[in-house]
Amino acid sequence: MWRFPDRSTSIGQSINAYLAEQSHMDDAVIHMLFVANRLEKRDEMLRLLAGGTTLVLDRYSYSGVAYTAAKGVPYLSMEYCKSLEVLLPAADLVVHMTMTPESMAARGGYGEERYEKVEFQSDGGLRGSAG
Q: Which residues form the Thymidylate kinase-like domain (predicted)?
């Protein structure tokens, strides 16, 4: 299983600093960095897929689109965010798992990253953008 962001790359390290609230970035810039982080793995994904390997990816492009669109920034619409993902291999299957924000908050480590806030993950935020 591959998890995104891939924090081992220089782009991933910039994303990690942002998620840990150690740096601030414009919403468009951080979205593009998330896309670039996935693109860093594109050639390897295509090679593995061509060889018949099944890839399981945690927080792939649909996750990035949903998180950015949930911010409600007018120029970062869901359609615009999707358009930036066009160079990535399309997913054959997307599994969207749901859990209440309150249940997530009860898990260990919750709240350590920027988007791990009950307010953001409620119906007015991330859950509202999934529709």
A: 3-123
pTM of this prediction? 0.84
Residue written as tokens 């120029």?
Answer: 75
Strands (DSSP E) found in the chain: 2-3, 57-58
- The per-residue pLDDT for range 19-38, each reduced to its tens digit, is 999 999 999 999 999 999 99
* Cα–Cα distance, 76 to 54 (Å, whole number): 31
The CATH number assigned to the domain holding 59 equals 3.40.50.300
Which residues, including other chains, have CB under 8 Å from residue 124's CB and lie 6 or more apart? none
- The number of angstroms, rounded, from the C-alpha of 92 to the middle of its chain's C-alpha atoms is 17
62 in a domain, yes or no?
yes
